[in-house]
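in:
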């Protein structure tokens, strides 16, 4: 199975959907921030491992606590994933903090401030 095949894309989407449901509804760890989302999931073609990109809307402490909580719940998450998705192998999940949304918001604010400065200069 190739990395970008239709089957692999479908598996990635299904694992992402189920992982979101598990994190949002089943995990009761207080370290996990309520505004945690699964941005994307990349499952290896052999279904042995997966990288889950997680976005946390909060400060750095909330992000670190959420990642620590998710890493400590890896076994439970994998077991819950195995129950909900029927795959030959249940992938071992590695959580990676994705800060692209925060970066995009920061860049958007910078662009807006530059635009405001330019429109202010033209009016004078």
């Amino acid at each position: 199975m190739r990395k970008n095949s239709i089957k692999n894309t479908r598996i990635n989407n299904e694992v992402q959907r189920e992982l979101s449901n598990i994190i949002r509804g089943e995990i009761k760890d207080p370290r996990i921030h309520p505004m945690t989302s699964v941005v994307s999931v990349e499952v290896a073609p052999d279904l042995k491992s997966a990288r889950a990109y997680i976005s946390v809307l909060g400060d750095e402490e909330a992000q670190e606590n959420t990642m620590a909580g998710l890493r400590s719940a890896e076994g439970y998450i994998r077991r819950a994933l195995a129950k909900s998705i029927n795959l030959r192998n249940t992938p071992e999940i590695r959580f990676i903090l994705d800060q692209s949304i925060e970066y995009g918001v920061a860049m958007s604010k910078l662009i807006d401030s530059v635009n405001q400065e330019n429109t202010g200069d033209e009016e004078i």
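note: The mean pLDDT is 89.
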